[in-house]
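During data preparation, a discrete fold description was generated, and the record follows.
___
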Amino acid sequence: MIFTLCSDLHLREDKPACRTDDYLSAQKNKLKWLREYSKDTEVICAGDIFHRWKSSPLLISIALDNLPDRMAAVPGQHDLPYHSLARLNESAYGVLVKAGRIMDLSLGYSLRKGKKIIGIPYGANVHGPEYRSGHIIVLHRFCEDEKVPFWAEPSAMTSAQVFERFPNARLIVTGDNHRSFSVRSNTGQWHVNPGSLMRMTADQRDHVPTLFKWDSKAERLTHEELPVIKDCVSREKLDKAQARDARMEAFVESLDKQNLKGIDLADRMRKFLAKNKVSTKVEELLWQMLERD
């Protein structure tokens, strides 16, 4: 049996700040690639089909018309109302399930020869003994191939931890991390993190959306990189934000180096904020730092 692996479609009606193209059309084109690539295969999506759980009727209609056939998935946090699995029926994801357009893998289902695909949605406990029997595990949780970044949730896992947690699985498909990678263990297990189908932030300018195919009989993995238009992702806002952060950092550092006796720091701060646009949260933090004894 051949499986097409994808994740983090993040279908949305609005345009990300970094995009300069017709983003709705771009999403439809990517879905067309997914449909073509997945012909005659079973499709597994590791979560976040939608960017917002309460997606519009227009976006739900686009999903109904353009998602591939024979698609199974688990819900990610963006699919869940207030991150609650109990309220799944209120979501756009739930509409796709009720319409029979996707199969919800949260309950798992049997494959040939008793092998099982088990889905683990966002927020679910991965320590249950019922997950030990899965031949294929589909998990929406942030994972990295080698080292988990410091800013990731405490529940984030490395590939080595994934293999340890699911020792009987031959394939583990994860979603949430928008970077594409695959890792094979010494015992032949595959960990595949397909990554996002779309580039939604400026730091994803060099990201190449990737689809994977897994042959369950031969346990062979292949992949295809989808074409992208480089110039449709702009770094302008990211570069401005980084420059602003650098100016604020320089300002704070300068306070440590100056003889502050007789200097009105509050006045300096007001002048700085007047010249540099910062968020309300950052401004509050700056004032808190200034007011410390």
Notes: The first strand starts at residue 2 and ends at 6.
